[in-house]
Amino acid sequence: MRVISFESRRAKEIGLLIEKSGGEPIIAPAVREVPVEDNAQAFDFAERLFRGEFDMMVLLTGVGVKALDKVLASRYGETAFRDALRKLTVAVRGPKPSSVMREWNVPVAVIAPEPNTYKELLTALEGRTEKRIALQEYGKSNPELIAGLEARGATVTPVQVYLWDLPEDTAPLKDAVRRIVAGEAEIIIFTTQIQLGHLMRIADRAGLSSEVLQGMSKMVIASIGPTTSEALEEAGLRVDFVPSHPKMGFLVQELAAQAAELLARRRGA
Fold first, then answer.
1. pTM of the model
2. Which domain holds residue 16?
3. What is the pLDDT of residue 227?
4. What is the distance between the alpha carbons of residues 94 and 100, in angstroms, rounded to a whole number?
5. Are residues 108 and 172 in the same domain?
6. How much is the pLDDT for 72?
7. Which CA distances in Å does 177 have to 24, 37, 75, 195?
8. Considering only CA atoms, which of 162, 159, 206, 156 is closest in space to residue 181?
9. Are strands 162-165 and 32-35 parallel, antiparallel or unpaired?
10. Mean per-residue pLDDT for 28-50?
11. Same domain for 84 and 141?
């Protein structure tokens, strides 16, 4: 089966996984992580951090916390941010920022369980007494998480580290739009919610938004997890498959085992 994936950072890896599972990969990277050119917000956060104005820092992504570390190291020295984190309560949304903390020898007090959404993080933070919270964001603000923390009496300071944009080369995305409209693929995989938004931006530019949504309604739609599924469902798309764990390997391998049945069910709907 022909499988469209919008994965960017691990595009080659997911392509190989699809091939090994018997599929024909169509890779259309949809996301480019763009460092914030004006780091004034990050430096303002750092000054407050070093003055001891926070009790807790919540880390949402491994890539994001590394980017923040790199930015702050350019002004304050290589270990300044890591040293400051050791003086705080550190909470992480999932395994990737947790892995970075282990690498830096920074203790982690709270880890959100799978599927590692803001909902699990809020639950994991219940009963915490820390009220001055810094929140490392990941390209898109999470108003639900902020509102949930503020409802408990916390003061939340978001720290934006990088933004998401379309890739510099949008030709593969344009080709994916064409294939979806022409019915030239059977399966479509989303590994983050922003991929859908960027796909639809390209479709909008071509005047093919409704055609793309109609085309996807005839395909098996696979989602990495609940946050991505929610975005797809809000766009009126039915998610056919979510893996047992929100990992790329589980996604491709488990999807391959069920693909024929899912496609038959989709076409019979």
1. 0.71
2. 2-31+168-268
3. 82
4. 11
5. no
6. 93
7. 17, 31, 43, 13
8. 206
9. antiparallel
10. 86
11. yes
